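Friendly challenge for the regulars: who can give me the structure tokens for this chain first? No prize, just bragging rights.
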Amino acid sequence: MSSDIKRIAVLTSGGDAPGMNAAVRAVVRTASSLDLHVYGIRRGYEGMIEGDIHRMEKRDVGNIIHRGGTILKTARSERFKTAEGRKAAYESLLAHDIDAVVVIGGNGTFTGALKFEKEFDIPMVGVPGTIDNDLFGTDYTIGFDTSVNTAVEAMDRIRDTADSHNRLFFVEVMGRNSGFIALNTAIGSGAESVLIPEVDTSIDHLVDLLHKSAKRNKLFSLVVVAEGHKAGGAAAIAEKVRPQLEMFDIKVTIIGHLQRGGAPSSSDRVLASRLGHSAVLALMDGKKNLMVGIKNHNISFTPFAKAIKNEKLINEGLLRMAETLAI
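First reply, four minutes later:
Bragging rights claimed.
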């Protein structure tokens, strides 16, 4: 264990994800068990710049493991992208004698951490907290499981009304650059088709697929659309196919930020606890400038540069399976 680290801080940054509180809890309690002083930084890097930093004890993280959002709040900081902003953040850490930081967030959070550590040599370890599940170096990110469960539950409810009215529903889920939520939601809900940013599905192909469904006397259809699909969101795609699918009463539902909220699933609570705990141990072992992840159920470590730059690929086998099961 490193004898140089006596005080660590923890922050949440970027978009909130269910399970972030469980990760904060794990960081605080693990650090406390090692006789470290722990500090919470409110509002991510913005709070670091402003010195919004306060001491945290074990009791401060009681009764939060089941709560969505983040008790530390979060923000996207434009100021941290500037040299002046990062210098102010460094001075805030020095004022509190903080030796290392656990950052919980996604790609943007780790990009900031990588640059900050290179400039000021403050050890930083990242915990992947993003519903998109798009970070290279980990099988799952905190919030992904809860987000998919929320979307599947919504799809189940939509299925009831679609079945009752002979409707075609285009359901938009989050995923600006990543189709992990959409693909898993489609499989879990038994949707007829899924449109994701990674695959350039043509409108003609989609129309042909839905025509085949109609010929099988299928009275309703569900199509999951990731918000970042090249052809547009659910509303735009619905308008493009409407003239060719007159047999359907076409409706659009956007699940949106409902996917970010709510109590984290059991899987996300366990994942967040493991990653937060391991992040503190990694710092004490002298590790820095990396993300703690999970691969094949085991804790793994990936340098920030690789986690940020390398693309996490969609499982093509799952895509083929989704198409087969939708027939």
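The CA atoms of residues 139 and 295 lie 5 Å apart. The chain has two domains: 7-143+264-309, 147-260. Your move, everyone else.
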